[in-house]
Specification:
Elements lengths: L1 H11 L19 H11 L18 H10 L8 H12 L3 H12 L10 H13 L9 H4 L17 H12 L6 H7 L4 H11 L4
Helix pairs in contact: 3-5, 6-10, 8-9, 8-10
């Protein structure tokens, strides 16, 4: 049933309108109150302490801007994330979005802290892949998991959050054409191993 549902969910991504966004660079007049609002959930400087709320500190600026845009399309995020971010994303202009993305991108990133056999298994998958349908994660996210441009930094993220997102990609709850087709072929133990290798905490 899921394989039948999968293409339908992918197709649904085109029916939701999105706003016009552009990368205009960090805003010099970024409202401190807006930063405080973001940090109330994502933690001081974006270094979230909640295992299900993503860390933003040191994240790629282009990726953060893209995610703010994608929250206007409910297929591009989990229902919980869309609910939490819809109002904020709807009311941000291009310049403010760029300013927020720039601010969090400049914060000191949380380093990955891999340890144990599970993390070692995750490192092998991340660096080498897991068969023909699951290429090395490093081929897009970089050998250290730092990402580049619109490809997100994964290193130092919460393990629980990473595992949840892989599951969301696997079930096409969160639509991303590249990640959907690769996550589809990962099992639960493999996704937990990758998270253990990349994460800090949990």
């Amino acid at each position: 049933m899921m394989k039948t549902l999968f293409p339908l969910l992918l197709a649904s991504s085109v029916i939701f309108p999105t706003a016009s966004w552009s990368a205009t660079g960090p805003a010099s007049d970024l409202d401190p109150a807006l930063v405080t609002k973001c940090e109330s959930c994502h933690g001081e400087h974006g270094n979230s302490t909640s295992p299900t709320v993503p860390r933003l500190n040191g994240q790629q600026q282009d990726y953060l801007q893209l995610r703010l845009k994608e929250f206007l399309d409910p297929t591009r995020g989990t229902p919980h994330a869309t609910y939490q971010m819809w109002e904020t994303a709807t009311n941000l202009g291009d310049r403010t979005a760029a300013g927020l993305a720039g601010y969090f991108a400049l914060q000191t990133p949380t380093p990955a802290a891999p340890k144990g056999a599970l993390a070692a298994k995750g490192e092998k998958i991340f660096q080498e892949g897991a068969g023909p349908e699951v290429p090395a994660c490093a081929s897009c996210h970089g050998s250290a998991g730092k990402g580049k441009g619109i490809v997100p930094r994964l290193a130092g993220q919460h393990a629980e959050y990473l595992a949840q997102q892989v599951s969301a990609f696997m079930l096409a709850i969160r639509v991303n054409e590249t990640m959907n087709r690769h996550a589809w072929h990962l099992d639960g133990d493999q996704s937990k191993a990758i998270a253990a290798y990349l994460a800090n905490g949990d």
